[in-house]
């Protein structure tokens, strides 16, 4: 079941009580609704995964008869999709759509497209970062080599386009298709900034630059993009889309900050520890530590961040962690995260007459809250 006591949900509950609405449903009814939501999400994952595999296979079977494939191609293309990520973005989209009155069947292709977009983007992202672990096992380029992995990512992108073409034929499909393309472009721009402000350049980043990276790279395709796509499936209008962006944008920034904090504290699951430091990523912790450290410490940080990822040893990692600890940079990042949490909650409060209130929207608020809880 979805957790029932998370930040945004707690605030939403206060809103509900303050308006003196109808008495809360009984515990039995709430549990029944929680089971219903959990069952729908579980069913969506299976149905969306099935559509993803169909989309991948369609790339191969649509080729002229007699086309020879390199060994292991289908296994490589299914490598990330079959590892079955959390489907959090697809779940956000699904609940947003259902809350807006959409039918379950109309959500499956968009859910598949969102999840496959994540899978193909991670193929390239892992290559760019030189990551060796993803979802608890070797990254695709570590398993199949960089060149084949890049090509596999391109092929998965083609499969996403196939799904989007089918979506464009659905009701309101043109608007949904355009939103997918918009979110994809914003995400790519954010990723490019993230790459530029890596290594020595990371220490030139400001808090404003970091927030813009988190907004574009994370918020767009992780929170408010799925929220808006779901709303479009439910035929919502511009007013609802704006309200969802106002909620999802700060929530996504809080999500990214929280993810960075977990990496700095070595609390990540399924990935290598301290990857942000090893890769030389710009985070609120590195920005604050560099700004508030002594001249000799800044010089050492510059030396370490100038190294290639695999040239950094444990002493380098520990040195950066020490400066971060000394400057109180994790606590600083937590304070900033809480500010964005509050912004998301305030946007939620301000949109209570715009966003439909039902058990799907309540479950959606809970799910978003789980993304930035440490």
List its traits.
mainly alpha; 16 helices; 1% strand; two-stranded antiparallel sheet; 374 residues; 2 strands; Farnesyl Diphosphate Synthase; disordered N terminus
What topology does this entry show?
Blueprint: H1 7-18, H2 27-61, H3 73-77, H4 88-99, H5 108-129, E1 133-134, E2 137-138, H6 140-144, H7 146-168, H8 173-196, H9 207-233, H10 238-264, H11 275-279, H12 284-292, H13 295-305, H14 314-326, H15 329-350, H16 359-370
Antiparallel strand pairs: 1-2
Structure description:
This protein has 374 residues and is mainly α. It has one domain (7-20, 30-370): Farnesyl Diphosphate Synthase, CATH 1.10.600.10. It is 71% helix and 1% strand. It has 16 helices and two strands. The longest helix is centred in the first third of the chain and has 35 residues, at 27-61.
Short summary of the structure?
The chain is mostly helical and 374 residues long. The chain has helices at 7-18, 27-61, 73-77, 88-99, 108-129, 140-144, 146-168, 173-196, 207-233, 238-264, 275-279, 284-292, 295-305, 314-326, 329-350, 359-370; strands at 133-134, 137-138.
| Structural class designation | mainly alpha
Q: Evaluate the radius of gyration.
A: 21 Å
List unreliable stretches of 5+ residues.
1-22
Annotation, overall tally of beta strands = 2
β-strand percent reads under 5%
């Amino acid at each position: 079941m979805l957790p029932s006591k998370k930040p945004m949900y707690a605030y939403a509950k206060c809103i509900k009580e303050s308006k003196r609405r109808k008495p809360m449903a009984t515990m039995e009814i709430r549990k029944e609704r929680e089971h219903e939501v959990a069952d729908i999400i579980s069913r969506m994952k299976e149905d969306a995964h099935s559509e993803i595999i169909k989309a991948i296979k369609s790339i191969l079977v649509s080729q002229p008869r007699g086309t020879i494939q390199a060994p292991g191609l289908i296994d490589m293309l299914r490598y990330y999709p079959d590892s079955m990520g959390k489907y959090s973005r697809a779940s956000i989209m699904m609940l947003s759509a259902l809350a807006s009155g959409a039918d379950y069947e109309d959500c499956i292709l968009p859910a598949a497209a969102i999840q496959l977009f994540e899978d193909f983007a991670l193929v390239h992202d892992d290559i760019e970062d030189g990551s060796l672990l993803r979802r608890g096992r070797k990254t695709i380029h570590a398993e199949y080599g960089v060149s084949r992995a890049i090509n596999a990512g391109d092929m998965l992108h083609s499969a996403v386009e196939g799904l989007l073409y089918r979506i464009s034929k659905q009701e309101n499909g043109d608007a949904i298709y355009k939103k997918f393309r918009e979110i994809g472009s914003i995400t790519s721009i954010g990723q490019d900034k993230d790459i530029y402000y890596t290594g020595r350049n990371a220490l030139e980043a400001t808090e404003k630059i970091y927030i813009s990276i988190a907004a574009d790279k994370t918020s767009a395709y992780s929170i408010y993009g799925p929220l808006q796509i779901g709303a479009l499936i439910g035929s919502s209008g511009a007013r609802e889309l704006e309200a969802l962006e106002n909620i999802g944008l700060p929530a996504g920034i809080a999500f990214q900050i929280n993810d960075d904090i977990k990496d700095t504290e070595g609390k990540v699951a399924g990935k290598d520890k301290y990857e942000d430091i090893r890769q030389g990523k710009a985070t609120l912790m590195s920005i604050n530590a560099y700004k508030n450290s002594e001249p000799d410490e800044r010089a050492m940080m510059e030396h370490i961040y100038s190294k290639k990822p695999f040239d950094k040893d444990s002493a380098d990692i520990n040195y950066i962690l020490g400066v971060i600890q000394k400057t109180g940079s994790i606590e600083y990042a937590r304070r900033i995260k809480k500010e964005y949490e509050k912004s998301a909650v305030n946007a939620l409060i301000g949109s209570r007459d715009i966003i439909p209130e039902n058990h799907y929207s309540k479950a959606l608020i809970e799910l978003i809250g789980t993304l930035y809880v440490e």
